[in-house]
Amino acid sequence: MFISSPRFQLWLSSPEQDWLPWSLLLLSLMCETSAFYVPGVAPINFHQNDPVEIKAVKLTSSRTQLPYEYYSLPFCQPSKITYKAENLGEVLRGDRIVNTPFQVLMNSEKKCEVLCSQSNKPVTLTVEQSRLVAERITEDYYVHLIADNLPVATRLELYSNRDNDDKKKEKDVQFEHGYRLGFTDVNKIYLHNHLSFILYYHREDMEEDQEHTYRVVRFEVIPQSIRLEDLKADEKSSCTLPEGTNSSPQEIDPTKENQLHFTYSVHWEESDIKWASRWDTYLTMSDVQIHWFSIINSVVVVFFLSGILSMIIIRTLRKDIANYNKEDDIEDTMEESGWKLVHGDVFRPPQYPMILSSLLGSGIQLFCMILIVIFVAMLGMLSPSSRGALMTTACFLFMFMGVFGGFSAGRLYRTLKGHRWKKGAFCTATLYPGVVFGICFILNCFIWGKHSSGAVPFPTMVALLCMWFGISLPLVYLGYYFGFRKQPYDNPVRTNQIPRQIPEQRWYMNRFVGILMAGILPFGAMFIELFFIFSAIWENQFYYLFGFLFLVFIILVVSCSQISIVMVYFQLCAEDYRWWWRNFLVSGGSAFYVLVYAIFYFVNKLDIVEFIPSLLYFGYTALMVLSFWLLTGTIGFYAAYMFVRKIYAAVKID
């Protein structure tokens, strides 16, 4: 067994290792086999000269945020183009996995091979094709290929600022995903038309009589630009690369036709890396040490502040409850002030109870989905090698968690004296998902206009609608029905018939000021993790630190709950009993800081200048902020509701 720390992946490659107890419980439904692997990523054994298929995934750019399929550019094509059947997550990510004409054989070298060779004639790019290629190069597009489900990476050798004698010692090797389509130099555009593939294999231990088997453990590429005149090709599709640095790069002039050769070479190297550890190359690209220090710092600060807040509020509450429960004379009772005075109004139903319960139901749905996804991903079941699995799982889980969202919304709606449960169930099932679908559909229309592979195809959109109305809607109705029929939450005090007059509030009790104050602590717990998540989404990085993310999620829940309790306590002490909506809005205050951080990230980290990429960024950011507000608002609301019920149950009410 191999558990990569801090990556929290679960990979098992040896039958002799013992299972951890919790692994046995989680995987008890699976039969015993000689080895266990995450579904869909079992190793493939190759023999000498077995074909290793190179497939293309897509073209991506952090400048445009618009993925394109591989053959949207005039690359060499095989005799028959075959697209892989993709799962829902791959389609939503814009992956279009397709075969390529690269001929790679296991442990078989190729010095130089020409693609699209027809009687030794070069490929001619038309003016329109040349313009398109030049445009993609200036937009910093990367090409993503895979071999044995392993993404291609470009090696980057970085040197620290030391003396010249120490350069070799201080060389730092990093990898970036894919390879650059080309580069620009002095207003000229050059295409990488030669790919030097370097594949690493691990030789498996076999018995003496058996043939050796190999497993692919790393896939690197060195892209080169070599002009047509410097590539010597023969009629057998072989070619000779120029020696040294004598060659000039292949320029692409967007104003005329361009002739060039697409070529590649293959080099194999033996590696000690085992198949179970082959993803480490891609998952160690960021500085984990900085991540560790940041996470530990956030944990210490949040728990320290939470401890102080808890101690203050518990001591204050004990004093309040002790004073309120004393049987003093009537004059002292008349002079009381604070949260006990609003006991007859604190549970008065708010305005728009149906919308409030619907939003909170969607918040519960999101909470259950996120908790399960992070936990399962932490165990390694949704590793990056299971392409698209994370998004597919999240979509289906959100649909099936509708039963819990409906149940909580139905019970709360009945507690708030609601009667139209059918309308409430429909509102719960359609309000938040409808907003998400509407924004995504509008953005999708713009992506369609750009002919990007990131556009969700019409059949997939119909399938999502069928999932929404065929799975999520009935489950929400089912949960809502049983939640509405269940006994409502038992409020410890009765509500007066005549509402109490609310005194004039201080400036710091303003709703927006409350959002600013309440959002700092939860945001402080997660803003470092937010940087890694944004990098994964907008800069095509792998996100794999789900162990850290699970820890941060727990801290987020704790901090949201405690800050929400403090805010509702201050509000009730100010004799303002209209806490339902206010607490829901204020508890989600960290979403405001997420929005501010997203704007900061857009300005400082991304190089997006065009309208449609900017629209996509802020459209998807709006969805993230809305979802995060629902999540944190729901956590804070239920914590505050439990707190309010608890404190009013602890005092004597005449």
Automatic annotation (TrEMBL):
Keyword field: Golgi apparatus, Membrane, Signal, Transmembrane, Transmembrane helix
GO cellular component terms listed in the entry, alphabetical order: early endosome; Golgi apparatus; membrane
Membrane topology: Multi-pass membrane protein
InterPro entries named among the record's database cross-references: EMP70 (IPR004240)
Range of residues in the leader sequence: 1-35
Subcellular location: Golgi apparatus; Membrane
GO BP annotation list: cell adhesion; phagocytosis; positive regulation of protein exit from endoplasmic reticulum; positive regulation of protein localization to cell surface; protein localization to membrane; regulation of intracellular pH; response to hypoxia; vacuolar proton-transporting V-type ATPase complex assembly
Main localisation: Golgi
Species assigned in the record: Oryctolagus cuniculus
Stated family: Belongs to the nonaspanin (TM9SF) (TC 9.A.2) family.
Transmembrane segment boundaries: 292-314, 358-382, 388-413, 425-449, 461-484, 512-538, 544-572, 584-603, 615-644
Pfam families listed in its UniProt record: EMP70 (PF02990)
Protein name: Transmembrane 9 superfamily member
PANTHER family: TRANSMEMBRANE 9 SUPERFAMILY MEMBER 4, TRANSMEMBRANE 9 SUPERFAMILY PROTEIN
